[in-house]
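User: Hey, my collaborator sent me this sequence without any context and asked if I could get a structure. I don't really work with proteins. Can you help?
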Amino acid sequence: MKKTIKTKEKILLNAIEQYNEFGVQSITSRHIASKIGISHGNLDYHYKTKEDIILAIYDKMRAEMSDYFVARKENSSSIEHVHLLLIRLEEFQYKYRFINLDVLEISRAYPQIATLFQQTSEYRKLQMDSLFQEFRSNEYMIQIEPEIFEQTQHIIRIIITFWLSQREVLGTAKFAEKGAMVKSIWAIISPYLTEKGKEEQQKTIAKYGYTQIT
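Assistant: No problem. I've predicted the 3D structure and written it out in structure-token form, which is a compact way to encode the shape of the chain:
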């Protein structure tokens, strides 16, 4: 039996599609209503403003991403878990393309969403720190000075946040292929891996590649 998609979900799915293709500023609620065949008043009943729509999309994205941070394949190593997580993070770059491309514009236009961006970033920082601590306890990572450790994590967060933007601006073909973001992040982490860590990393990449989720 085919599942019926509720109007609120239809609005969000179509908003994501149009925002991804044309950008946030180019699409109004009337565009979205017209595309899914409802009145503007009907859409307004569910979401009063564009900010409400973007907030709902961001909540949806955060919930999905949080599941990936927590979910873990049985008997997987911490390196395998992080590798699969990075692949999912890159997939999200394209699924929610507009958020990554228009992050500065959205932050300036909608302060409430900007605050959520910052809160989420701090929370992900704690989660990343926990994963790196597990690398250490598993003897996958060498001891790093706290300042370098913090800077490394910050660089990784910058890469994730602005990956699509740098592709648009720099236009480097080498970094346009799928999996390039995952490779770039491992390039930051790899110098700090022990021999044991490098062996586990190589085994994990041989198993999954940079784009495939099994």
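In plain terms: The radius of gyration is 19 Å. You can pass these tokens on to your collaborator as they are.
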